[in-house]
Amino acid sequence: MDISRKWLSDYVKLDCDDACLCDKLTMAGIEVEKVEKSSTVPAGVVTAKILSREVHPQSDHLSVCRVTDGKEELQIVCGAPNCDAGMIVPLAKIGTVFHTDEGDFKIKRSKLRGVESFGMMCSEKELGISENNDGLMIFPADTALGVEVVSLYPGDTRIELEITPNRPDCLSMWGVARDVSCLLSTPAQLPEIGIPECDIPVDDLVTVENMELCPRYIGRVIENVKIGPSPDWLKERLESVGLRSINNVVDVTNFVMLELGQPLHAFDRDTLTGKRVVVRNARAGETITLLDGKVVELQPEHLVIADAVKPMALAGIMGGENSGVTEKTVNILLESAVFKSSHIRSESRRLGISTDASYRYERGVDFDMAELASIRACQLILATAGGVIASKAMEVSAPRPAEPVIRCRFARIRALIGTTVSNERIVDILQKLHLKVTDITAESCVVTAPLFRLDLTREADLAEEVARIDGLDKIPMIPVAGKVCHPDSEDAYAPLRNLRDLVIGMGFDECVHYSIVGSASALVDSRFEKNDLIELSNPLSPDNGWMRPGLLGEMLGTVGRNIARGNRDLRLFELDKAFCKNPEKFPEERNELLILLTGKRHPEQFSADGEKLYDFYDIKGVVETLLDKLAITNFRFVIPEKADGRFRNGYALELQLEGKTAGMFGELSPQHAASWRSSAPVFFAQLEAAALIAAAGHVKKSCKELAQFPGTARDIAFIAPENLASGEVIDFIRKCKAPNFESVRLFDIFVGDELKKQHKKSMAYSLSFRNRERTLTDNEVNAAMEKIRKRLEAELKVELR
Amino acid sequence: MNEIIEAVNRAAGDAESKAAVAVDAAALEALRIEYLGRNGLFPELSKKMGSVPPEERKATGTAFNTGRTRIQAALDAAHARIGQGDKTDKEAIDLTLPGRRTAAGHRHPITQLADECVSVFRRMGFVAVDGPEIEDIYHNFDALNTPDDHPSRDPKDTFYFPDGRILRSQTSPVQIRVMETHEPPVRIVAPGRVFRRDTPDATHGMNFHQIEGLYIDKDVSMADLKSVLQNFAWEMFGKDVKIRLRPHFFPFTEPSVEYDFSCVVCGGKGCNVCKNSGYIEIAGAGMVDPNVLKNVGYDPEIWSGYAFGLGLERLAMLRYRIPDLRFLYDNDVRFLEQF
User: For B109-336, CATH number?
Assistant: First the structure.
């Protein structure tokens, strides 16, 4: 809401400058958004006296004057016709800067037709004080010299306030003045409000059929008004906060709304069928054309102000096209009403219409203000448009709501705010806010909140009033007590952070994507079908309405984007939530870890080293290292039973933890990378964070004694069928359970031309044997080796070398 | 003692004598090749291992090892005597070639700020908890004392699902979930993603990240809140940062405040980041509204506390002077690798 400093000072004396006023408002919770000064008199323009005037030797139109500002005497060349000795005028001295629409304009020492001039004398228009440009502005003869003209014509300041939804009482000058008076400790005063008494009843003038939505309606009749332009003071007030003047009666209703916060509507009574109003729900099929020309088809839930026949206004929102005051209007029915705030809010939202009136109604107007505002508007209509009051207040009203009575315990207020604010100060603040304070004891008082303070119902609300008026800067700094209230095991963030740290530690860049995605991106993850996706009811756009079921889709978008920009060597990961509707597949929300790499393994290197691309064993190594770092040992890599559309066929492994799938890794199916300008294969691992965290949590680390006796190594080499997997050989050797067997490691695979033809390959393993109690003899080891060799030969059909 | 052992011992003795009189590194290298080289005497002798009877194998092996060690020791001693000679010059490397690097890995700026905030608050005794992003109306609005017709409930501003649930519009529902399952005292922070129905632009996105704080105990006051926030400001932006509380309004706190940091760019003098006000709005806070406490079954006469929330994108943008929010969701590695 906009306020004008000048207007505000009609109600409260403002003994502080704009900056101070704005700071006080902001620090009291009425935040100043913007400050705009209307005065254009620049600094440097001072009052000065013309000592003498002579005609310019080269021009009849110019004068050469001697001018003093009380400190120095200057020669000024002037073109104004009214320029004469003895006048006190505004003088813009050298260096003064005028801000004009065409840009800044600086007064310089200059020569006019050969005569030097040391400044400029100004007209009212040149100073932005009025439109008068007939000649120099003239001050009264007793005006002091050398005074900054801006201090004589300060203009006005327009201040834009952000009023929080709990403070509808501040949506008026008077409301803001109430708070300002409390902040500045100066009384706020309304002007004299009153009208000639009139006790003529007008039967049936006002009928209210729906008291729930319209708990109060006051109608007054004013006859024989003369519609015309508003007086200057009224125009100036409205324009000072950005409203356009329309005519005297409409301007008065707007003025009173801005002054007191009560929306008003003036009907042309002669346009009302039956010359009366009925507040009722609309009937099916009724329509109304609003003031702005918009036609609304009314529904029974709409509340309207109707005449005897048809709707004339949308209650609390906007008048109808034919209901308002025009230049022909003679008789007025003035409405001052209270409508239920939630009704106006939902109506305004549904219709997409927001007006100054609806804005105030939907936040809540003061039940008590309707009467005063009605009288105030009548007073000003009589003053600006003439006419006579032709009825008493015709009022239909529900019982006045009870004012909340709140017990205010001083100790409790202090405990909540954390300051030592005294009992007296608390009472003082509450009273200055126009609240009724009674039953003051050493411990507490009783506060009755007026109906304009709808936000005050509880002790905590009073604490806020005391805190904001006393000043939040009074709240002291105290030592921070780092109390432990929860065990570490409740920390949900630490395990995820640990996982993230490990992956970053392996050299991956973390990505963050939006989790609302398009269905194409969502279904890149072929584990999911459309039925598994959680769909939004109101997406921003129809093609962007699904919660991502996995992180792959958006990650591939990022990879494609990076490659298109020439970033081809990528090590990326994301750890975040994924969503699934199908509980047989996944819980609704879970954390997924997606790790991806593509491009050159060592882009910083050169020659052959620099050209090497990542391969399957890089992503496998990442997963193995991650498991190692998490100390998870009871995992299994399983060759997936069926093809997975995400992966290149035959290039994927499944990670199993505690017998359950915990992720997959391998090479991205080339179809997903088809459009990228990169031939490097892409590898990724998709892992379930919860499974990793759980498995790591189950690890019980215990120290194993280091072997004291030397181990013995033996190598074994054989020709095997080319499809014999190394993992199978290793599992087989382990399962032989040869005495003192410790470990086995592949150290060579060789496929020569000759072997290739026979569909065979050469494999070589190094086996280690060790006994914890003694050094093994050759014989023992040889016997063990022999057993393994025989079984390999017989069961895996290999040819030993 | 078999003849292989004898041959090994003899060779070792010969090598020792020759090493003792070698005059330069070349001579030593020749010696090494003669005895230990691929086609040298030792590998030659070891080929005969196969013919050694099993009971002598161990002794033979030991002799091989001892012999090899003796020769190596003699060569080392001779090297030491002669000095390094011109070896370094001959095998000089280009020290300016690139090192073989381990990929560095970078934390996303939003996560960096989340991690930092969690650490700072953790030191002050707050534990970090999590809550669902698909949330119900009760936890996101009703329990937080939000009026039924509050604009934030509008489908224009909040994402809805067909079952009536929503994407949480704030991290505050985590407060409710924690209080529902814990007896006071409670001291938590909840970092996480929140959703608003905003079209992405330089300062908006479909979602952003918040961190929520909540402390409920006996005798908690706004002074506790202010001190915790001031401490947080110091930890995040250094000792010169001041905080300012301004009264404000939120449905779930009373009294409510917004808190500002003195501008971390200009130090409070006024600049375009703080719009010449000297302060930057960081987020909202306040004393938990008695209605919220009642909703979770806490007695507001016994328990009081504060809550606060702040936006991580905003902090990241301030900290790293990121001009456009969309950079944070674009994931260009040239951007990610700066952090």
Answer: 3.30.930.10
